[in-house]
Write a structure and sequence with these properties.
Length: 151
């Protein structure tokens, strides 16, 4: 009888371990399914504002990669006619573009943010060297928007 009791206890332990393993595996799969972000923020960067800033930069990256002028206008609502012409021309001249941004600094004050990044593009399969870019952002009711893009 003692062997049977140990057997049942062992079976329960084995079941618990199996369930924990299955849960850990499912958790790892759900994390693996999340695509990696094209935007890397510095560690400890403005915890309260970081998600909104990351979102607007990721949407900008998606607009560029998708060559979507309307989405570009959503993230930069003050897009001038001249800027739109340049954006359309750039989008037409490129077959494929992948953008990666490493955020170097974020300075937030009074609903405005200056975000300095190192940007690396892959255009038509060729990696373009990294270059600096500065985004001037404004916090609106619906979230952050891009006011200016510079170097």
């Amino acid at each position: 009888m003692r062997v049977g009791a140990v057997g049942k206890r062992g079976a329960r332990i084995a079941l618990c371990l199996w369930l924990l393993g299955a849960a850990a595996h499912a958790s790892a799969l759900s994390l693996a399914d999340d695509p990696p972000s094209a935007v890397t923020l510095p560690a400890g960067a403005l915890a309260a504002e970081a998600p909104g800033i990351r979102k607007i930069l990721e949407t900008y990256v998606h607009a560029v990669e998708a060559k979507d002028v309307e989405m570009f206008r959503v993230v930069k609502p003050n897009l001038s006619e001249e800027e739109e012409k340049r954006v359309r021309l750039a989008f037409k001249s490129i077959q494929t573009q992948t953008v990666k941004m490493n955020v170097l600094s974020v300075d937030v004050k009074d609903g405005k943010a200056t975000v300095k990044v190192a940007r690396r593009d892959t255009i038509n399969g060729s990696i373009v060297s990294s270059f600096p870019q500065t985004f001037q952002l404004a916090k609106e009711t619906a979230g952050w928007t891009i006011q200016d893009i510079g170097r």
